[in-house]
Each structure stands twice: as structure tokens, then as C-alpha cells.
Amino acid sequence: xxxxxxxxxxxxxxxxxxxxxxxxxxxxxxxxxxxxxxxxxxxxxxxxxxxxxxxxxxxxxxxxxxxxxxxxxxxxxxxxxxxxxxxxxxxxxxxxxxxxxxxxxxxxxxxxxxxxxxxxxxxxxxxxxxxxxxxxxxxxxxxxxxxxxxxxxxxxxxxxxxxxxxxxxxxxxxxxxxxxxxxxx
Amino acid sequence: xxxxxxxxxxxxxxxxxxxxxxxxxxxxxxxxxxxxxxxxxxxxxxxxxxxxxxxxxxxxxxxxxxxxxxxxxxxxxxxxxxxxxxxxxxxxxxxxxxxxxxxxxxxxxxxxxxxxxxxxxxxxxxxxxxxxxxxxxxxxxxxxxxxxxxxxxxxxxxxxxxxxxxxxxxxxxxxxxxxxxxxxxxxxxxxxxxxxxxxxxxxxxxxxxxxxxxxxxxxxxxxxxxxxxxxxxxxxxxxxxxxxxxxxxxxxxxxxxxxxxxxxxxxxxxxxxxxxxxxxxxxxxxxxxxxxxxxxxxxxxxxxxxxxxxxxxxxxxxxxxxxxxxxxxxxxxxxxxxxxxxxxxxxxxxxxxxxxxxxxxxxxxxxxxxxxxxxxxxxxxxxxxxxxxxxxxxxxxxxxxxxxxxxxxxxxxxxxxxxxxxxxxxxxxxxxxxxxxxxxxxxxxxxxxxxxxxxxxxxxxxxxxxxxxxxxxxxxxxxxxxxxxxxxxxxxxxxxxxxxxxxxxxxxxxxxxxxxxxxxxxxxxxxxxxxxxxxxxxxxxxxxxxxxxxxxxxxxxxxxxxxxxxxxxxxxxxxxxxxxxxxxx
Lengths: 185, 585
Description:
Number of helices of chain A: 11
Strand order of the largest sheet of chain B: 1-4-5-8-9-10-11-13
CATH superfamily of the largest domain in chain A: Winged helix-like DNA-binding domain superfamily/Winged helix DNA-binding domain
Keywords (chain A): Sigma factor, Transcription, Transcription regulation
Transmembrane segments (chain B): 47-66
Keywords (chain B): Membrane, Transmembrane, Transmembrane helix
Largest interface: A-B, 54 and 47 residues
Shape of chain A: elongated
CATH topology of the largest domain in chain A: Arc Repressor Mutant, subunit A
Strand content of chain B: 25-35%
Radius of gyration of chain B: 48 Å
Distance between the termini of chain A: 52 Å
Number of helices of chain B: 13
Largest sheet of chain A: none
Strand content of chain A: under 5%
Mean pLDDT of chain B: 65
Region (Disordered) (chain B): 1-29, 96-361
Organism (chain B): Fulvivirga sediminis
Number of domains of chain A: 2
Helix content of chain A: over 70%
Oligomer: heterodimer
């Protein structure tokens, strides 16, 4: 089935392309939304990701072991390129975030009770650089070295961005009404 | 340790829930995607079509080049062949004449009449001589032996000239007669057969003995031997000739070469010839001719043929007279050769005139349109505009270093139309490759990391850390270009040169970025406009015309888009080598 899809896409068959889209679009949009700040950005990345998937399939004649993992990798790379192209993030250092030290020790409990949408909002609200590093490290499982290569930054920067992302999220959790409610409760 | 465990737990919440998270794709996601895919396909098809057209034009141009070369070579060869073939034809004419004479009854082409004339004259004269040999043997081999044979007369120039040339003619006829006589006396072969053998001999003489002197010697020798042998053979010959109807048939058959319609009366003509030949003097033969001019079908043939008409006779006789005066021993073969030479010259002149006309026609046809097949090398100068973004390019290490890494190439085919003698317009299809190698040092504007120090209740200090890095990139881009322009001829440094200016639109076909280890983005602008100016210098190498054109090209926009690490609005210089091709044949 997947081989047929791959073969069809390599032959530029529109039917095969549509079938691939129908099957993997939900996963791809999930990835895109994690990396994008806004929904529109996520849609742009999504569109570009599928064009890249089709063109990569046509260009590459190598055997694809896991189509899902391969599509995931292409989508993540597209998101990173989008980050490079748009360069929207102006990672102005927030002093508040930088000096924020008041961690709520009970955030673990709180996190488990947060909905997917709330978690996604936590990620989306992160500065772009921090969001990229957090997504790549925490969810995609890349190492700091790999992230440094991909984002053209130093390893130390990757680590600090991750740390910063977590601090921001924890701070947000602590300051959110829900967190306070949970804490009181 | 406990902190890292906490970190893992924190991340774990997100990993577990987002790793395979799916969301609803945009409602019109596929429609948008489909549209963009269609647009991409159409764009690709369009450029493929353009590439195919350009390729076909190139192939056509190449074919034309080869073809025109072939035609030129062929033209030269044709000329040579033509002249050769003329020679051949002329030689063949001569040989055909001889061969056809040899065949005696064959279908002789009408163009061979002139040469046939001589053989025919020989034949008739020999007959006359034989007749006269019977009736007045003392006249053999003398001027007075010129027969009143109308055919002989017709074939030969009128009386006076014939008298002079008849020395040889009668001798040669004696020779023929003797040979016939010998053959007849030995093997009993009839007269016609013997005559055809004589034709064969004559033909062989004509073919083999192209050299006049050789012929003269041969004939003079033969005339000597024939006069010796004559006395023994003439007695046998004469009665046969008188009674031999085949003799007149032979003449008729020879006459049939010239006019097959008039062969029916040849027997009568033969009889009248024999009668007139018996008069035995020039005057009577002339009068016989005059009489037969009106009545004889052979004479009427001669009138119609336009070869033996009186005017032509006069002309021919004058020519022959001059030849014979200069060379009393000149023979019919030599006259024939003179004539063939004259014909040859005339034909050559005609051909030259034809060729001139053809060339003029060709020039007229070629005068408006022409093609130029060109190839060139170019060098790209860089003018780098750093982007106002995350990277600060502090220095470019090889700004305009002369290196092959910055050299590209171009292949083009342009069609030109001449507006005036000096001004032309042109349209060009080209394949352009540009390359640039850039080595630069950069610093990210966003700090890699920060260190907060001296934190106090009111203030704190922040140290930022930014890596200074180095990157080298080798970019290569292929474009398909379409350009329009104009050329104007001017006289520069005492040579006619053409100044040209082209406006060009280039579309990216493919691109490649190498050595780019840092992952910097080099996104090409898909379409670029540029203006090109230069000078065309014609050069001739061994009659092969070429055009060398140094040029300068300035693009209107950057090669790289604003998304790239930097923009580059580089100019290009190059030298083009072109082959002009005329069209219209």
C-alpha cells in the first residue's frame, strides 16, 4: 500500500499524491502547529512540507523504510527552513524570564491535567528560537549537537534555549489561574 | 541529578502527548496544494517546452551550419564536378561521336552532328574517291578529286575550303578504301560492313589519338600506305560501289542520325550522289550541290538541322580556313577538338554566368535574415548586499578574486533581421551558467548565549556570547534566457564592427550550492532581467568567418532573493565566439 503510494508519487500521479495527503496530513499539521507561532504560519509550513515531500519523493530513489518517520523528518526540516526564511523571531532577552527563579514544584501534577490545547498554547507562546529547540530536543529527540548543526547555533546556545523554554513554561504554569487553583487545591 | 530527572519528567509530559499528535488539516488544504502542484507542473512544462524549442533551434542551427558547409563544399565540388563532368561530357561527346559513328546505325544524338559531320564527310569522300578511282584513276589523291557528293558537300565546308582540306580527306578516304578493298578482297565482307569497320577505326583513332600531332602522323602515314595499296584495291572496289545498295543504305543510316524522317529518300539521294560524283570536277560537283540543295532530302535535312546551313557553312569554313592555313595537315579530328574546346569554353562561360546569377540570388535571399551560433565564457563580479537579519557578514575574503570558480559559460542562438544596411534587430535564445564562489566571515546578531552577572535588587549585568564563524559557498545556477536587442554597424579602428545592446530575461532552470557547511540559505530569484552591451568583431580564419564579441552584462536585480544570507547584484563580463549563418537558401 505504502509502496504503491510512494511509486505513484514518484510518477507524479495526482491520485497517489492525494492519497498520501489524506493519510499523513493530520500528523503533518500536528508537527507544523508545534513549530508555528500562529495557525496561519502552521498552514504555510504544512503546504510547503507537502510540496517538499512530493519533490523529495520524486528526486530520491532510495528505499524508504518508514514512510511516517521520513515524512516527519521532512516536515520538521521544512519548519526549520521556515524559521530560517522568515526570521521572525527577535529573541530579545526577557529579563523577567532570565531571572525567573520561582519554580512551582508541583508543576508536574498540573501538567498532567492540562489539555492538549493548553499544552500547545504553552509551546506556541515560547519565543521562536526556544520553541524550535524545545520541540527538537524534547519531542523529536534530537541531541543538542544535532540541533546546533540544524539551527546554525552553538551547542551551548541550544542548551540555554531549552532551559529558557522550560523556565518560561514553568513560569507560565505557575502564573496561570489554573496553576494557582491547582496549587491551592 | 534530581533536577535532570525532573527535567526529563517535564519533557516527558510533552513528548508522550505530542509525539504522535494529530490535528485536523486545513479544510482547503488539498485544493491549495493541488493548485500549487499544478502551477509547478505548468511552469516546468513551459520551461521544458522552451528548452525543447531552444534545443531544436540549436539543432536546426547546427544542421544548417553543417548543411550550408555541405552545400558550400558541394557547391565547390559541384563546380568542379560540373567542369569535370563537362570535360567528361565533352570527351564523351567526342567518344560518343566516334562510338556512334562506330555503330553506324545507332541512334546518334543530334548534338553530335558536328563531329559526325567529319566522319560523314570522310565516308562520302571515300566513296567518291572510290567512284572516281573507277572512272578517273588519275585524279586519286588530288584536289580535283573532290567529289560532287552532296552529303560530303553538306558535311564539308563549301568548295574552296574543301579543296584545301581534301588533300587529307581524299588520302584518308583512300586509306579507307584500301582497307576496305583489302578486306573485301580477302574475306569477301560487303562494303557496308567494311565501311562500319572503317568507322570503328576512325572511332578508335578519335578516342585513342586525342593528340592532334599524333593523329596527323597517323593519317599521313596512312595516306602514304593507302596510296601504295590503292591501285590494287580500286579495281575491285568500284563495281561494287556502283551496284552496292548497302552503300547508300549506309549513308542513309548515317543521315538517320540527323533526321530520321528523311531517310526514305536516301536511296534516291545516294543514286543522285553517285551520278553527280561521276562528273569528276569541282565545278560540276558544286553545281550538283546547288541543284541538290533544292531537291535533295539530305540537303533539306542540313538546312533544318542548322548545322550545315549556308551561314553555318560560311562560319565553319572560315574557322576551318584559319585552322587549315595555320596547319595544312590539320585533320577533321583536330577541327573537332577545336570545336569541342570552343563548346567547352562556352559551356564554362555559361556555367560561370549561371553561378554568378545564383550567387546574386542567394545574396538577395540572405540579405535580410541571418543566424549566429555563439558560445562564451563569462566572469561574475560580486556586489554583496548583506541582509538585515540574523547574520552580520563582517568580511568577504575573496570579493573579486580572479578564479575559475567565478567563471561560467553560455551557449546561444540568435536570429537577426537586417533593418537597414547598418542596423539589425536580434532575438536570442540562450543557456547561461553562472558561478560564484564566496568566502565570508559572519557573526550571528542574536547572541548564542548570555550570562547574567552582578545581579542586585535594582540591576544586573548580562554578558552575550556570539560565535565568529566562517563560511565558503560555491553557487552554480543555470538559466534559460530570452533576449531582444539591436545591432548597429560602425567603423572602429578602420574595421566594420557592430555595437550591440540586448535586453535579456533569464529564468532559473536549476541551481546548486556546494561547500555550504553552515546551512546558510541561498534562494535564487526565479527571474532576472539584465542588459548586455558589447562589440562584435568579425574575423576570418581560412575563409571561415567568425565573430568575437566582448561584452558587459548588468543584471537589474539580485541573483539571490531576500531570504538568502546575502544578496548579490553582480555584473558579468564575457567574450563570445560566434559563427554567422546565412539563411534563406
